[in-house]
């Protein structure tokens, strides 16, 4: 019993490194209150800091510039972190159709920001992926737009839908520039799929058909560019040939030939039409 009491007293009187914050009392006066030790609470933390400091000996150090540092100070940091010496030294993986001017601008900007090779490439790849997803999301549903236009035209034209579409196409074939229908509109759809545009072509066709002969218009609608003067003369010879229904008032085609000759004369002598 007496031995246990002696052990307890000895343990109570022994200084504890962890519970006592007086470990600094063992230091010289010039180190005891040094600011570098202010965050160290006990001897184990002191030992850990010492080990970490030892492990850094011989390694390259980077001093982080402050807000008052010069651009040259920052350049030194960027170079140590792996920034290329010049913008053109970035080796970028970009799409084949990339704009050279944009790529040059990007490299210059990356260099100004101090990006190293890996950072510049990651940012470029992320940007390309984002822009690609945006383009895909904003791409119009051409098939839906075309179906919508056709539905509107069918509603407007009813049974004359096919006839009017054929009429509009004949005007395009005759007068439109090649590739005109492929032009993109503000909403991304094609001009040739626009119900408004198709209605305009049909209206032009109706206007022309009302003012020229059927023969001329039929020739134009077939993509023949109308009847040439020689075509008109040849058809007149055929209409006025000997034995033609034109000269037989009892012939079932007599009226048709009379009207056809009139149309041909209107084409041959438009000033008298």
How widely separated are the two ends?
A: 144 Å
Beta-strand fraction estimate = under 5%
Query: How many structural domains are formed by the residues?
Result: 4
Radius of gyration from CA coordinates: 46 Å
| Shape call | rod-shaped
Please give the count of helices.
Answer: 12
| Major beta sheet summary | none
Helix content: 55-70%
Structure summary:
The protein has 273 residues and is mostly helical. Helices cover 57% and strands 0% of the residues. It has helices at residues 2-13, 29-32, 43-55, 71-80, 100-112, 117-138, 142-157, 161-175, 195-211, 214-221, 229-239, 254-268.
Task: Describe the SSE topology.
Elements: H1 2-13, H2 29-32, H3 43-55, H4 71-80, H5 100-112, H6 117-138, H7 142-157, H8 161-175, H9 195-211, H10 214-221, H11 229-239, H12 254-268
Helix pairs in contact: 8-9, 11-12
Give a verbal description of the structure.
- There is one protein chain.
- The chain is mostly helical and 273 residues long.
- It has four domains: 2-55, no CATH class; 71-138, no CATH class; 142-211, no CATH class; 229-273, no CATH class.
- It contains twelve helices and no strands.
- α8 packs across α9 and α11 (229-239) packs antiparallel against α12 (254-268).
- It is rod-shaped, with a radius of gyration of 46 Å.
Name the descriptors:
about 270 residues; mainly alpha; 4 domains; rod-shaped
């Amino acid at each position: 019993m007496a031995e246990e009491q002696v052990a307890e007293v000895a343990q109570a009187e022994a200084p504890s490194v962890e519970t006592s914050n007086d470990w600094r009392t063992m230091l010289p006066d010039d180190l005891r209150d040094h600011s570098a030790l202010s965050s160290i609470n006990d001897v184990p933390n002191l030992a850990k800091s010492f080990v970490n400091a030892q492990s850094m000996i011989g390694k390259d150090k980077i001093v982080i510039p402050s807000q008052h540092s010069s651009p040259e100070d920052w350049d030194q940091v960027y170079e140590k972190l792996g920034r290329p010496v010049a913008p053109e030294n970035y080796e970028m993986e970009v799409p084949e159709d990339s704009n050279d001017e944009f790529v040059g601008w990007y490299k210059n900007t990356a260099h100004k920001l101090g990006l190293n090779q890996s950072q510049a490439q990651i940012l470029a790849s992320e940007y390309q992926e984002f822009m690609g997803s945006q383009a895909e999301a904003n791409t119009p549903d051409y098939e839906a737009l075309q179906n919508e236009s056709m539905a509107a035209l069918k509603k407007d034209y009813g049974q004359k839908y096919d006839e009017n579409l054929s009429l509009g196409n004949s005007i395009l074939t005759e007068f439109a520039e090649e590739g005109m229908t492929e032009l993109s509109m503000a909403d991304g759809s094609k001009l040739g799929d626009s119900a408004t545009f198709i209605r305009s072509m049909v209206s032009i066709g109706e206007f022309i058909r009302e003012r020229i002969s059927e023969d001329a218009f039929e020739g134009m609608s077939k993509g023949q560019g109308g009847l040439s003067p020689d075509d008109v003369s040849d058809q007149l010879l055929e209409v006025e040939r000997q034995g033609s229904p034109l000269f037989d008032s009892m012939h079932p085609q007599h009226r048709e030939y009379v009207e056809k000759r009139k149309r041909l004369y209107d084409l041959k002598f438009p000033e008298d039409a």
